[in-house]
Amino acid sequence: MQSKQGRPSKVGSGGGGEGGEAQGKFLSKVSWNNINDSKKEGGLGVKGLMIWNRACMALHMWDICSLKESLWVEWIVTYKLKGKSFWGLKMKSSDSWSWRKLINNSKDVANQ
After folding, report:
1. How far from the centroid of its chain's Cα atoms is residue 86's Cα?
2. Is the pTM of this model over 0.85?
3. What is the pLDDT of residues 51-75, one digit of tens each?
4. Which residue has the higher pLDDT, 106 or 61?
5. pLDDT for 37-49, tens place per residue?
6. CA-based nearest residue to 79, from 66, 92, 106
7. How far does the chain reach from its first CA to its final CA, in angstroms?
8. Side-chain half-sphere of 53: how many Cα atoms within 13 Å?
9. Rg for the chain (alpha carbons), in Å?
10. Which has the higher per-residue pLDDT, 29 or 3?
């Protein structure tokens, strides 16, 4: 049901049947289970943030291991790796949150 303003209208007095129909609730146009599906498949095409984040972390790892020419990679090699392999690094309590997450994700990537 649509209201005159084009927004979903409230469901009237109902007993809470299928599809989330409950009194005073708005009907959703897309199920939360299908939100990551493409628009062609009936979803909204929203990227899964967990997967997207792991892919970005893997890209950082690739840049470090391939010694990409960037100031960030040069800094990491000079001050963090200090001649060691990225894959053998251990976390320190003094490491930044983002560096600890990168090292933690490297263990997941290495195990796959």
Report:
1. 23
2. no
3. 888 889 999 999 999 999 999 999 9
4. 61
5. 888 888 888 888 8
6. 92
7. 47
8. 8
9. 23
10. 29
12 Cβ partners below 8 Å, 6+ apart? 23
CA distance 97 to 95: 7
Residues 18 and 62 sit within 8 Å (Cβ to Cβ): no
Q: What are the residues whose beta carbons fall under 8 Å from the beta carbon of 19, sequence distance 6 or more?
A: 27
Mean pLDDT over each residue of the chain, to the nearest integer: 79
Residue 6, amino acid: G
What's at 88, amino acid-wise? G
35 half-sphere exposure, CB direction, 13 A CA radius: 8
Domain locations along the chain? 1-46, 49-110
**So what's the pLDDT on residue 2?**
47
Cβ–Cβ under 8 Å, residues 1 and 9: yes
